[in-house]
Specification:
By secondary structure, this protein is an alpha+beta fold. The protein contains 15 helices and ten strands. It folds into four domains: 5-160, no CATH class; 171-254, no CATH class; 273-321, Roll (SH3 type barrels); 329-411, Alpha-Beta Plaits (2-Layer Sandwich), CATH 3.30.70.
């Protein structure tokens, strides 16, 4: 049932008070004083900002909360001066004017002081969205309380109700639930980021285990935050069992792929088949895993592209993990020489060139084999190991081949040149055709 009588009575009494103030000359005097205080506050804020040209340098050695508080106080310099001036004017007006004729100054001064306190408290929060939400909500509540409309507004918002599944839904309940949920989610996010930083710097944990722990902690904190917010506004979680069950069935039927990718992501993190930093090949996509998300993994191709591969594909398809055991990689280089070269000398020269390359592993010496006597020359295959795949294999292969080319030119070893035998058979020229005689 809607009952707005108390709210209407409060509005009527407030309007009567304002109407009475409008007929008094003291009202216009207060307006003038408020305008003067606003002008002085604006000028003072401009002067303060001009003198403190490098605010960050002056507070660089302060603790982080104090730096943010000083930054908030600097931004609110004009409001601070305005609040102080209106407070002093109110006290003077209260002493000189008849009782009740300083109402407007009292309201404006209280609103300015409330805004200043809220702004300084909100400056300690890093998230800009949360700062705006907290500042606006707190100032609306403070403003309604100052003008005496807070209790009637609460009663009016609570008088409009809809009962759904044993829960009495009102605008007041929705507002309280939104505010508590936003605050709880912000606290959960801040705590999860703090724990994620701690887990990331734990060297004894593998990268896969770090990602798994951070995801589990984040999901757990979000679920706890939602339950706490619902309990804080008086919603019984057990009364939503039927509703949440129906929603869960609907989501399960409509979001099968998302659920499948989520479960596959948990499997990948637990079995450690792939982990951040691995070089993998899935289908035609090859690159290094840069991040493992709830729904997909991000694979950096090395040329600026990022492949977003669903987790389900890594569980159901063939995956080549080049760094599953270690980060060493075998590189093969094929080349050929003419038959004029000594194959043993060519192999020794190729092994020496590869061993002298900085990226080639010294613990596993290179090898060179003569693989084929071709039509045009001898074919060789050289293999060597590199220690880190993150630097890539193509650049190391190119460096070895260019050094091999320089060595071949220096030693007089030539590349094979195709040889073609062209044989001309001796044939008599054809006799010219003549017309028959008649």
């Amino acid at each position: 049932m809607i009952d707005l009588s108390a709210f209407q009575d409060t509005l009527s009494s407030t309007w009567h008070l304002v109407d009475t103030e409008l007929m008094s000359p003291w009202f216009y005097l207060q307006i003038a004083l408020i305008v003067i205080a606003a002008g002085v506050g604006t000028a003072a804020a401009t002067v303060i900002r001009a003198r403190d040209a490098r605010p960050a340098a002056s507070t660089a050695k302060w603790p982080s909360p104090l730096r943010r508080l000083a930054r908030g106080l600097r931004r609110s310099a004009g409001v601070t001066v305005f609040a102080l001036l209106t407070l002093v004017m109110r006290l003077v007006m209260h002493a000189l004017a008849p009782p009740g004729h300083d109402y407007l100054l009292a309201v404006v001064s209280s609103l300015a002081i409330a805004w200043l306190i809220i702004a300084l408290a909100a400056s300690l929060i890093r998230n800009d969205t949360v700062v705006r939400l907290v500042s606006l909500s707190a100032w609306i509540i403070a403003a309604l309380s100052i003008v005496g409309l807070l209790d009637p507004t609460i009663d009016a918002l609570d008088s409009v109700a809809i009962v759904v599944g044993g829960i009495r839904l009102t605008p007041l309940l929705a507002i309280k639930a939104s505010l508590f949920l936003a605050l709880a989610l912000w606290l959960a996010d801040a705590l999860s980021r703090f724990l994620e930083t701690r887990i990331t710097h734990a060297d004894e944990l593998t990268p896969s285990l770090q990602v798994l722990l951070t995801k589990i902690i984040r999901l757990t904190l979000v679920a706890v935050a939602v339950m706490i917010a619902m309990a804080a506004v008086g919603i019984n979680v057990s009364s939503l069992a039927v509703f949440t069950g129906a929603v869960g069935v609907g989501l399960g039927l409509g979001l099968q792929k998302i659920v499948s990718n989520f479960i596959s992501g948990i499997i990948l993190l637990t079995d450690k088949s792939v982990k951040p930093g691995d070089l993998i090949t899935v289908g035609d996509s090859t690159g290094t895993i840069s991040a493992m998300k709830t729904r997909y993994i991000s694979v950096a191709a090395g040329d600026g592209r990022e492949f977003l591969i669903p987790n389900e594909d890594l569980v159901t398809q063939k995956v080549v993990n080049w760094t599953y055991v270690d980060r060493n990689a075998l590189v093969k280089v094929a080349f050929a020489t003419s038959y004029d070269a000594d194959p043993r000398a060519v192999c020794r020269l190729a092994v020496a060139i590869a061993a002298a390359t900085p990226q080639v592993m010294a613990g596993k010496p290179p090898s060179c084999l003569l693989t084929e006597f071709g039509d045009n020359g001898m074919k060789f295959a050289m293999t060597f190991w590199i220690a880190d795949l993150s630097a890539g294999t193509d650049n190391v292969r190119s460096e070895v081949m260019m050094a091999l080319w320089d060595a071949f030119r220096r030693e007089g070893i030539h590349a094979p040149v195709p040889v073609r035998d062209v044989r001309l058979h001796d044939q008599r020229p054809a006799e010219p055709l003549t017309a028959p005689r008649t």
